[in-house]
């Protein structure tokens, strides 16, 4: 172990937010050792702005709870730790780990329980990458380096502590973290990792909880290096482990969406990771729609059922939360409405809660060369920049264009292009109406017979009585005087 001066590493208290200093000071005041550890320290040394900071201490989760009270919440079964709120921010506080006395692992060696408390010397050995093992004590101005982590950061080397195969067996998610760090930090992966990485190694991700894989995919999609990461997912056999029915290829739509996402993050704009899932699953969604169309399912039901099927299939790899699934389906449904909007619904559609996401998706499709958008992505982009009067004129022009297009198509051609599903539906409705009419006639005939039988029984008048056979004579009213009589 070597002790480095924080100032030599480019670290300073002025670079830290008040929230992490509050956590460190509170634990130190209570008599515990506390350090800032992990990616926050690494990013500060690299000159980047960390998204968050993690703390580590020799206090157990129960003792951390005693220090912070209601501000603290204990989470996790496999890896128990504390979430402590400081102002509007949440800091993750972990306890020093030690090697388990009796390892609780799966058949393949994945660690199922890791709640053995230890010392700081034992804790660093339990971590995955060397670049995440720097322990920074801001008040003392020192950094504890146990494994030449500072040297690896400066040389941009991504190295696992200990045997690489064993570390992947303990937690297969480390494979995703390896690619994420390599793409985000532009680090070179250590040769010891490359030597053991194969298809069988990547297949261990199937043992990981789909919820945890979704959380890790969220980090990958939102780190701002998607364009560089996606080819690595294919190269290292990870693509098929996190995406159920998506072919391992980067289509023009996926490429364009990755560039757009990275650009938004670089500009400091927010993103929705569910949007990129909508892009990735778009092709399986279209294929599923075609499947239901071939079965004779009407268009609306085919789209709805296809969306359910694709997301349910994806849940076998990464379980997308319910609200995110709803968002994805709404974005897909907006496509047909934006491509063929009714003129009277255009203003209402532009104010829809999912209009912006649906429009962004449509524009990405159009920019990636999808001809089925019919140029409506550009139309909607121009429409949003118009004033109210200009929008009314644009809608009127759109209505006239629609009417003009209808007149161009002969009636015979229109009939020829009627979908077989709609024709079947019309025939079914006609048959149903004819059946209802026949049933109504039969019921009326039965009622008439019942009345006749009742009259015959009560009055003795049979069906062949002259009064029933009498024909109604049309009377001549030309000589009838209407009005008061004398």
From TrEMBL:
Keyword line: ATP-binding, mRNA processing, Nucleotide-binding, RNA-binding, Transcription, Transferase
Polymerase A arginine-rich C-terminal domain location: 297-408
InterPro entries noted in UniProt: NT_sf (IPR043519), PolA_pol_head_dom (IPR002646), PolA_pol_I (IPR010206), PolyA_pol_arg_C_dom (IPR025866), PolyA_RNA-bd (IPR032828), tRNA_ntf/polyA_polymerase_I (IPR052191)
Organism for this UniProt entry: Acinetobacter populi
GO terms, molecular function: ATP binding; poly(A) RNA polymerase activity; RNA binding
EC number(s) recorded for this UniProt protein: 2.7.7.19
Region (Disordered): 435-472
Positions of the tRNA nucleotidyltransferase/poly(A) polymerase RNA and SrmB- binding domain: 200-248
Family recorded in the similarity comment: Belongs to the tRNA nucleotidyltransferase/poly(A) polymerase family.
GO BP terms, alphabetized: mRNA processing; polyadenylation-dependent RNA catabolic process
Catalytic reactions of this protein: RNA(n) + ATP = RNA(n)-3'-adenine ribonucleotide + diphosphate
Record-annotated active site: 52, 54, 128
Pfam families: PolyA_pol, PolyA_pol_arg_C, PolyA_pol_RNAbd
CDD domains: NT_ClassII-CCAase
Sequence ranges of Polar residues compositional bias: 443-462
Domain Poly A polymerase head, first and last residues per copy: 34-159
Purpose: Adds poly(A) tail to the 3' end of many RNAs, which usually targets these RNAs for decay. Plays a significant role in the global control of gene expression, through influencing the rate of transcript degradation, and in the general RNA quality control.
Name of the protein in its database record: Poly(A) polymerase I
């Amino acid at each position: 172990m070597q002790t480095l001066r924080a100032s030599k590493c480019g670290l300073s208290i002025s670079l830290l937010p008040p929230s992490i200093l509050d956590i460190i000071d509170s634990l130190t005041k209570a008599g515990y050792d506390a350090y800032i550890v992990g990616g926050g320290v690494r990013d500060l040394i690299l000159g980047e702005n960390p998204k968050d900071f993690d703390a580590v201490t020799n206090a157990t989760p129960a003792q951390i709870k005693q220090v912070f009270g209601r501000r603290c919440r204990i989470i996790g079964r496999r890896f128990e730790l504390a979430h402590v709120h400081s102002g509007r921010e949440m800091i993750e506080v972990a306890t020093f780990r030690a090697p388990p006395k009796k390892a609780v692992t799966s058949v393949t060696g994945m660690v199922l329980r890791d709640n053995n408390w230890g010392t700081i010397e034992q804790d660093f050995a339990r971590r995955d990458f060397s670049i995440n093992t720097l322990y920074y004590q801001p008040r003392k101005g020192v950094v504890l380096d146990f494994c030449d982590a500072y040297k690896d950061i400066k040389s941009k080397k991504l190295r696992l502590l200990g045997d690489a195969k064993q570390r992947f067996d303990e937690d297969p998610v480390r494979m995703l973290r390896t690619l994420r760090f390599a793409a985000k930090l532009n680090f070179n992966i250590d040769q010891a990792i490359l030597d053991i990485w194969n298809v069988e190694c990547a297949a261990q991700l199937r043992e990981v909880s789909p919820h945890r894989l979704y959380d890790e995919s969220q980090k990958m999609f939102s780190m701002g290096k998607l364009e560089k990461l996606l080819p690595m997912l294919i190269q290292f056999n990870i693509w098929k482990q996190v995406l159920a029915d998506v072919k391992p290829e980067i289509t023009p739509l996926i490429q364009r969406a990755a560039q757009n996402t990275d650009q938004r993050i670089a500009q400091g704009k927010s993103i929705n990771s569910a949007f990129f899932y909508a892009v990735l699953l778009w092709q399986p969604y279209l294929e599923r729609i075609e499947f239901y169309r071939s079965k004779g399912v009407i268009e609306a039901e085919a789209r709805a059922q296809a969306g359910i099927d694709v997301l349910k299939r994806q849940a076998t790899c990464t379980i997308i939360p319910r609200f995110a699934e709803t968002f994805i389906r709404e974005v897909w449904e907006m496509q047909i409405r934006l491509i063929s909007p009714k003129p009277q619904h255009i203003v209402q559609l532009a104010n829809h809660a999912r209009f912006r996401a649906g429009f962004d998706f449509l524009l990405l499709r159009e920019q990636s060369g999808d001809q089925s958008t019919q140029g409506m992505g550009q139309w909607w982009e121009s429409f949003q920049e118009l004033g109210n009067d200009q929008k009314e004129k644009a809608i009127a022009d759109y209505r006239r264009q629609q009417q003009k297009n209808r007149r161009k198509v002969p009636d015979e051609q229109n009939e020829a292009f009627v979908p077989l599903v709609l024709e079947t539906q019309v025939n079914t409705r006609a048959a149903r109406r004819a059946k209802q009419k026949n049933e109504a006639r039969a019921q009326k005939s039965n009622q008439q017979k019942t009345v006749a039988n009742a009259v015959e029984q009560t009055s003795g008048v049979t069906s062949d009585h002259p009064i029933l056979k009498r024909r109604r004579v049309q009377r001549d009213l030309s000589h009838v005087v209407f009005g008061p009589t004398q």
